[in-house]
Amino acid sequence: MNSDEIEITLNGAPTQVPVGTNVAELVTRILPNARAYAVEVNRSVLSRREHAERTVKHGDVIEVVTLVGGG
Amino acid sequence: MTAPFAPAVPPLSIAGFTLQSRLVTGTGKYRDYETMQRALDVSGCDAVTVAVRRERLVDAQGRSLLDFLDLARYTILPNTAGCFSAEDAIRVSRLGREILDSVDNPGKHWVKLEVLGDRKTLLPDPVGTLEACRELVKDGFTVLCYSSDDPIMAVRLRDAGAASVMPAGSPIGSGRGIANPANIALILELLKDPAAGGDAAYPVIVDAGVGTPSDVTLAMELGADGVLLNTGIAHAKDPVRMAHAMKLALDSGYHGARSGRIERKLHASASSPWQGSIASTVIPGE
Are B205 and B184 in contact (CB under 8 A)? Predict the structure, then answer.
C-alpha cells in the first residue's frame, strides 16, 4: 500500500483507495453506470446526498448494494 | 343474448398500497431476464419482489435486473432474504429503501421481512422476525411479514404492527403447496374474523411453497387475500404458461371462496332423479 493510499473493506474485499476519496467518487470509479444502488458505511446507510461529503477513512467497511432477482 | 358473466377480482389494499392483482410474483431463479419479463407480464402482477445484494451489476451479457423491470409499472417489494438476524434484516430493509428512493419507486416505503432460522429449511426465526418487525414499524416501514403457519405467531406479528402477515404454505421453493390448510384457516380466522378479534380488511397473503396452480386456488379458497410466489413459476418448464395458469388459479380461488361451496358428506347424493328410471330396482348385493 502506498502512503497516499488507505485500505478499506469494500463489499467484503480489502481495497486500496487514494487518500481523500469520497464515497461518491468511490462509487463512480467502481460503478460508472450504476443507476439503482445504496451505500452503507460501517453498518449505517449513507444517503445519496451525503456521498460527496463523506470522505473514505482507513478501515471503513463499505457495502455498495443493488437489486437482484429474488422471491 | 345474456350479458357475459365476468365478475372482477377487486384490488387488494395494504396500508396505502393498492394492488390491482392479488398475485405477487418474485423475480428470482429465471433462466434469463427475457423469460422473467414475459412471465411477470402474463401473470398480471403489479408488485414484484426483489433481493438486495452486493453490487455485481450485470449478468453474463452485461445486463442487470432493472433493465428488465418497468419501474413505472411495477411496485418493487424488496425482501430481506438471506438474513439470519434481526439486525441484518433491518440493515437490508434500510438499504432497499435507499435504493428504491433513488429510482423513485413507491416500493421504498415497504419491505418483505424475512428473518430465517435455518439454511436447510429456510424456516423463519420467529423471535428474530418479531424483533425486526417492531423495529422496522418504528422506523416507518410498511412491513409485509413472512412467517411460519403458526396462528399465534401471526397474531403476534399483526400486533407488532405488520401491515400484512404472510404465512408460508410450506418451505420456500419446496413446491409442497399448502402443507397445513387447517393452520392457514386458523390464521385467517384470528386475523380476519371480527368475532375472533380480527379485521376483515386485514390482508393475509400466503407466501412460499406454492408449486402448482391448485395450491394458489386452495390458498384463495381458504380465504387468503393474495398469494406470493416465485419458484413455482420461475422453475416450471414453461414459466410463461405457468404464470398464466397461476393467474387463472387465483381468480378461480377468489370466486370459489365467495360462492358458498357444498358441504362435504360421507354419502353420495345423486344428481339425476331416481324417478322415471327404467333400470331394475334390484341392486346386486342388497
Answer: no
> Which domain, by its residues, includes A13?
5-65
Which A positions 14-53 lie with beta carbon below 8 A of chain B? Answer: 30-31, 33-40, 43, 45, 47-48
- Chains A and B form CB pairs within 8 A to the count of 107
Give chain B's domain count: 1
Q: What does the alpha-carbon distance between residue B204 and residue B224 come to, in Å, rounded to a whole number?
A: 6
Global pTM value? 0.91
CATH, residue B102:
3.20.20.70
Range of the domain at B219: 12-257
Of B54, B78, B95, the CB nearest to A12: B54
Q: Kindly report the CATH number assigned to the domain that includes residue A28.
A: 3.10.20.30
Whether B126 and chain A come into contact, CB under 8 Å, resolves to no
Residue B6 belongs to some domain of the structure: no
Q: Are B205 and B164 in contact (CB under 8 A)?
A: yes
Gap between the Cα atoms of B145 and B205, Å rounded: 9
Question: Mean pLDDT in runs of 10 for chain B (286 residues)?
Answer: 88 93 97 96 97 73 84 95 97 96 90 96 96 98 97 98 97 94 98 95 96 98 97 97 98 96 94 90 80
3-state secondary structure of B98: helix
Read off the amino acid at residue B16: G
